[in-house]
């Protein structure tokens, strides 16, 4: 038998062998499994990466002049611009609400004269009545507690109004009416002053919120809601040295119809009609 014939005979034996067939089948199965696993991992990674790449941020912020005003005198006006800027990556609808807080301190009503009007200065206490009043934290504004001027000089709170929701054109307790919020002329409306069909970029007050009429695209800012605050000349002297705090709060939402349910806007509300044609379904 030649060498070539011997090789052919050997291959026929291996081919007919059950052990060889089993080995070959196992090897093929392993290769298929490894290929499927690699394909699944790669496909899964690609789906995650596409999802991450499509995520875009909804974000907006309150802009303007929000610095503290000190020594606010009766009959004067201070700049207080408030607006909203879309600093996110997607179009947004925004609304604002305002809250006010006020704390005043005891004044000296005793003097050496029979009329007993006092000198009108704030009554000073040498020791504090704790917990102390923190100007930046209205939860500490408590009648009878003191605000520290220096280590041996403290003023005692005698009148406090905290976190009052501002109602546009509504009634405010004393002395709030003397603190006038100056809204942007011709850009703020409510049920008593309806916007016309040609008005745009305005604020509409409804149920405690000022709704901005336009969708803000990324980088865009709203019209100013407020321009300034004026302290009326009729502001009473007994409130001298008081603290007044105005806090604007902002909500932002993407331009989907879920806005109505999320913000509790009914079909009969003005805001519903204002936004209806500006939102995606």
Automatic annotation (TrEMBL):
Which InterPro entries does this UniProt record tie to the protein?
A: BsaA
- Protein name from the UniProt record: Alternate signal-mediated exported protein, CPF_0494 family
Q: Lineage of the native species?
A: Bacteria, Bacillati, Bacillota, Bacilli, Lactobacillales
